[in-house]
Specification:
This protein is of the alpha+beta class and 141 residues long. It is built from four helices and seven strands. The protein has a single domain, classed as Aminopeptidase, CATH 3.40.630. Strands 1-2-3-4-5-7-6 form a seven-stranded mixed beta sheet, sandwiched between helices. β2 and β3 form a beta hairpin. It is globular. It starts with a strand and ends with a strand.
């Protein structure tokens, strides 16, 4: 079931955020994610966040700021089970377009977004990490 984030889920969501970032971004120092943890936790309520819950457990979530996907994160035991796609399909429902940034070295995520209809419109350097990122867009057809 996909539903809006409640304050009761924030700690679960943040644990998924931290672990998923560390796992997916081996090319960025783990300390980077720990340093940004509190800032992201404070910003979370300002975004539209939808969680995927199964049997009372938060398995993953998607965060949006307007029509920009700030991230789709799925807890490790639940990856490759369609949860990321379900979250993406959920946010596509009432939108004509979406955008996102993904690190080029995060090949798995980039491939996922390409399979789901996103196209790369730009490549740039993330000022915070110095890593190349892809700017991707999806438009309803």
């Amino acid at each position: 079931m996909i539903k809006k984030l409640s304050t009761a889920h924030i700690d679960s969501v943040m644990a998924i955020w931290l672990n998923a970032n560390i796992r997916a971004h081996h090319f960025i120092a783990e300390s980077y994610w720990h340093r940004h943890f509190d800032m992201v936790k404070e910003m979370l309520p300002a975004a539209k966040v939808y969680v995927y819950e199964e049997s009372g457990a938060i398995c993953g979530f998607v965060g949006l700021v307007e029509d920009s996907i700030e991230g789709i994160f799925v807890d490790s035991p639940y990856q490759s089970k369609g949860i990321g796609r379900a979250l993406l399909d959920y946010v596509k429902q009432n939108r004509n377009g979406l955008s996102l940034h993904v690190y080029e070295k995060n090949a798995r995520a980039a491939a996922f977004y390409l399979r789901e209809g996103f196209v790369v419109t730009e490549k740039q350097i993330d000022e915070n990490t110095g890593e190349r990122e892809l700017v991707m867009h999806w438009t309803r057809r």
